[in-house]
From TrEMBL:
InterPro entries in alphabetical order: Crypto/Photolyase_FAD-like_sf, Crypto/Photolyase_N_sf, Cryptochr/Photolyase_FAD-bd, Cryptochrome/DNA_photolyase_1, DNA_photolyase_N, Rossmann-like_a/b/a_fold
Record keyword GTP-binding present: no
Occurrences of domain Photolyase/cryptochrome alpha/beta (ranges): 2-131
Signal sequence, renumbered to the chain: none
Family designation: Belongs to the DNA photolyase family.
Name of the protein in question: DNA photolyase family protein
Pfam families in UniProt: DNA_photolyase (PF00875), FAD_binding_7 (PF03441)
Cofactor(s) essential for the protein: FAD; (6R)-5,10-methylene-5,6,7,8-tetrahydrofolate
Keyword Flavoprotein: yes
UniProt KW keywords: Chromophore, FAD, Flavoprotein
């Protein structure tokens, strides 16, 4: 009987898992392994919220595998060394895995694939997390896309809904002594700050399937109109499940296809904006693959000369903890701190305030999001921050500066979102919950801070800085 090693990474599911299916087609026995090697992702090792999610997702995957008769091996250390040791002790002939697209992961996987093949071991990798591989889609001139709309037009035409292969009912194991338990990976916080995460999420493939089912049965029908309203449950909240591979874009596409057959044309039309948002996820990976320097450097080199302010530690901490004095910005940052997630419309407002009103480099925000988001994804995080800063592909012009007061009045008109996350303002009776500084007596009584900066003045200073940068180039 032949044996294969299945190397799990961020593909923590059994349904629609190409590497799993390929291994089972070619071999009788399977040795599944997860190797905890965070330093191999340097300088973007997983943040605290991501580690929390990973602990629970691995626990869920372990239970799924046990129900099918096989144990998930958990290991720590250098990935190549661990794989070589498992190959020796198990007698396996091949290693299968699903691809990752971050620069450090590509370099590691290329090195490992070459080393294993030189050892005489077969090594196979697959696409399990994107609609289209980053290298499989090009402009008419043969280069990478920098603008989303033509990218998505090309990619959308290639999408073919298909049912993914179901998880096997039984897997024949290869017996190797277990190395570690999930707890040994020390992923959970030493100080229990994670109560809000536990209240908000159900990591694992079952949680992902439940979230998709609920979304298709409910909020998807009004997604086009309601996705920008942070007080409403108008989005799918699938982003962390997608990041950890508990569900694939192909599974979501097939679910939309299946549901749309019975739901009718109006429902299918409502689903298209959501599918387009999944397209943005693919586009972010396309950009990261073709421009691997962008997690730390501007895509647009003109912004290398931008006069960012030196960060003031107290001011930056006030932003991080939701004490800027701008209610919808602070509500978003407190939602993030409590739940590990933030509504996408509010993410843009929070980022715009940091980059344009405080005029701090986007990396300060990208690093904070990286540590606190359960859906922290290098491609999406990089693209989102560079888009807001004006330095990335298809970016918002730098002079597009969100006014958080008017944005709050438009997308949180009754202040429900702000009142939920800023309880000190909830019962004060402000005429405008989004600009409490206009009522000094009530503001003083609430204990809520004055704004860190004047919105109008800081906007003008940001525009002047932008013009100064342009005059240099």
């Amino acid at each position: 009987m032949t044996t294969a090693i299945l190397w799990f990474r961020r593909d923590l599911r059994l349904d629609d898992n190409p590497a799993l299916q390929a291994a089972l087609r070619a071999h009788e026995r399977l040795l599944p392994v997860y190797i905890h090697a965070p330093d191999e992702a340097a300088p973007w090792q997983p943040g605290a919220a991501s580690r929390w999610w990973l602990h629970h997702s691995l626990t869920a995957l372990q239970a799924q595998l046990r129900a099918r008769g096989v144990e998930l091996q958990l290991a720590r250390g250098d990935s190549l060394a661990v794989l070589r040791d498992l190959l020796r002790t198990s007698g396996a002939e091949a290693v299968y895995w699903n691809r990752q697209y971050e620069p450090a992961a590509i370099a590691r996987d290329t090195r490992i694939k070459q080393a294993l093949r030189e050892d005489g071991c077969a090594a196979h990798s697959f696409n399990a997390s994107l609609f289209v591989e980053p290298w499989d889609i090009r402009t008419g001139q043969g280069g990478p896309y920098r603008v989303f709309t033509p990218y998505w037009r090309n990619a959308r035409a290639q999408l073919q809904p298909r049912p993914g292969a179901a998880a096997p009912a039984r897997i024949t194991p290869c017996s190797v002594n277990a190395r570690h338990a999930v707890a040994d990976l020390a992923l959970l916080p030493r100080i229990a700050w994670d109560a809000g995460l536990r209240e908000s999420w159900r990591p694992g493939a079952a949680g992902a399937a439940e979230a998709l089912e609920d979304f298709c049965a409910g909020a998807l029908r009004g997604y086009r109109e309601q996705r920008d309203w942070p007080a409403q449950a108008g989005t799918s909240r699938l982003s962390p499940h997608l990041h950890f591979g508990e569900i694939s874009p192909a599974q979501i596409l097939w679910k939309l296809e299946e549901t749309g057959r019975d739901a009718g044309a109006a429902w299918r039309e409502a689903a298209e904006p959501f599918l387009r948002e999944l397209g943005w996820r693919d586009f972010s990976h396309h950009l990261l693959y073709h421009f691997p320097h962008t997690p730390l450097q501007n895509l647009n080199p003109q912004f290398d000369a931008f006069p960012w302010r030196e960060p003031d530690a107290q001011q930056l901490q006030a932003w991080q903890r939701g004490r800027t004095g701008i209610p919808i910005v602070d509500a978003g940052l407190r939602e993030l701190w409590h739940t590990g997630w933030m509504h996408n419309r509010v993410r843009m407002l929070v980022a715009s305030f940091l980059c344009k009103n405080l005029r701090l480099h986007w990396l300060h925000g990208a690093r904070w999001f990286w540590d606190t988001l359960v859906d922290a994804d290098l491609a999406n995080n990089t693209q989102g921050w560079q888009w807001t800063a004006g330095s990335g592909a298809d970016a918002a012009p730098y002079f597009r500066i969100f006014n958080p007061v008017t944005q709050g009045e438009r997308f949180d008109p009754d202040g429900a979102y702000v009142r939920r996350w800023l309880p000190e303002l909830a019962g004060q009776g402000f005429k405008s919950i989004h600009s409490p500084w206009r009522e000094p007596a009530l503001l003083a009584r609430s204990g809520y801070p004055q704004p860190l900066v004047d919105l109008a003045a800081s906007r003008e200073e940001a525009l002047a800085a932008y013009q100064a940068m342009r005059s240099m180039g």
